[in-house]
Amino acid sequence: MALLEVIALDARDAVAAHKGGADRVELVVDMGADGLSPSPATVADVRAAVDIPVRVMLRLTGGFAPGDLGELVRCTVELRSAGAQEFVLGFLTADGAVDLPAVTRVVEAIDGAPWTFHRAIDHCADRAALRSTVAELPGLDGFLTAGAAAGLDDGIATLIAEASGPQRILAGGGLRLDHLPRLEGAGIDAFHIGSAARPQGWESPVSAEAVRTWRAAVDDQRP
Length: 223
Prior knowledge:
Blueprint: E1 3-8, H1 11-20, E2 24-27, H2 40-49, E3 54-57, H3 69-81, E4 86-89, H4 100-110, E5 115-117, H5 127-134, E6 140-145, H6 152-162, E7 168-171, H7 180-185, E8 190-193, H8 208-220
Parallel strand pairs: 1-2, 1-8, 2-3, 3-4, 4-5, 5-6, 6-7
Helix pairs in contact: 1-2, 1-8, 3-4
């Protein structure tokens, strides 16, 4: 079965995503900043509410710079103490290269936990160089990517070309149901949705029915 990940902002979202058939949630706050780290209390609430994996965002400010790295590491330790077991992260330098010292420091703080390199890859100067640079970091098991900064409409050919790489492609960023045949036909089997799980917009909670529609569509596309 393909992986379906849904963005959750709180425990209510996580419960609805689970009911709809999501395999995993990505837990963030403040989608106006494209997703920042939740509080330890929110992590604890979500972990208590669902028994599916929860990937917790490690990002304190908008953009893709790490900001105050010491504060980010402290936040990471607090989130781990609150029950976070899986993570999402990714940082770039001002010239669009992966900020390897920052990424490495945070990966050390999560101490071997599984993590996704998020859509910073879609804003980098050289995707192949970024993937090669972080490939051997412990715990990395996938890239959340649309293939282009503008989203999947522009990046789908890139994702298809990258589908056979060593880390799993988690397709997300403007993902629509009509993208699925091409993506799954290329061997991509992991999908990430945010607004697609909220037909009434980001001010409304995740819809279990919308997630259920995606679950059925993702599974129907499998060979």
